[in-house]
């Protein structure tokens, strides 16, 4: 149905301006019920979108600043691949103090989602020690030596407790900061994994040290290499992962 689905949020719903940053989706600033919102159109399954919506509603109830889904006129949280969410005010983190605030918010996310079920179709980094595919990751498309390096990095996280992770919080465009709160936006890469993957932040905002920092950096670089394989960015990230 495409953007015609926006009519399901009311006859006055309209697109205003296309937004940048969505590699897998078409994202626009829209007006719904007389207020500004953000709409995302993609090809995710209903089960995938239901998982994301449930997570965001849970986090909102617990006091985290997240883009809560705005229901259609008949109460659905998404329709025909389209999700409309609250617009989050603020700017990107810039200083070391900003990134420490981001880490505090991420740790709260992790605490609130221990034992959370995996996003449909996804695999965690440690699942990929055995599995070969999961959503955007296909290890069979990578050279065997690259797969061995990635799995060696992920193996250092084996046995750790898992929770929901944002998946891309080190991108300043995915954070909106105001003096009184930190909002995390763009949950398209959220899934269940080891929390340290979220804490590899600019200025070492996550406060990891020693072996924990090294393990997280290696595992994060391996994850980005596998997710984006094979483009220039993925090759650069793989170069950060130590040979076996």
TrEMBL record:
A Pfam family found in this protein is APH
Ranges for domain Aminoglycoside phosphotransferase: 16-203
Position of the signal peptide: none
Q: Which domain of life is it from?
A: Bacteria
- List residues traversing the bilayer: none
Which InterPro entries does this entry report, sorted A to Z?
Aminoglycoside_PTrfase, Kinase-like_dom_sf
Q: Which SUPFAM superfamilies match?
A: Protein kinase-like (PK-like)
Name of the protein this chain belongs to: Phosphotransferase
Q: Which organism is it from?
A: Paradevosia shaoguanensis
């Amino acid at each position: 149905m495409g953007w015609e689905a926006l009519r399901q949020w009311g006859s006055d719903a309209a697109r205003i301006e296309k937004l940048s940053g969505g590699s897998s989706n078409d994202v626009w600033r829209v007006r719904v019920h007389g207020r500004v919102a953000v709409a995302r159109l993609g090809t995710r399954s209903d089960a995938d979108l239901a998982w994301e919506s449930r997570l965001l509603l849970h986090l909102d109830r617990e006091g985290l600043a997240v883009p809560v889904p705005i229901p259609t006129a008949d109460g659905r949280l998404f329709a025909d691949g389209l999700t409309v969410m609250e617009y989050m005010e603020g700017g990107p983190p810039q200083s070391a103090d900003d990134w420490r605030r981001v880490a505090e918010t991420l740790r709260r996310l992790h605490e609130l989602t221990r034992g959370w079920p995996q996003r449909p179709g996804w695999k965690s980094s440690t699942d990929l020690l055995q599995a070969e595919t999961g959503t955007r990751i296909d290890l069979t498309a990578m050279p065997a030596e690259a797969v061995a390096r990635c799995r060696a990095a992920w193996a250092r996280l084996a046995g750790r407790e898992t929770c929901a992770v944002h998946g891309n919080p080190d991108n300043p465009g995915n954070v909106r900061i105001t003096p009184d709160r930190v909002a995390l936006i763009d949950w398209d890469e959220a899934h269940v994994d080891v929390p340290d993957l979220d804490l590899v932040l600019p200025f070492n905002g996550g406060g990891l040290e020693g072996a924990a920092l090294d393990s997280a950096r290696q595992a994060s670089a391996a994850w980005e290499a596998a997710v984006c394989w094979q483009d220039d960015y993925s090759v650069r990230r793989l170069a950060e992962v130590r040979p076996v």
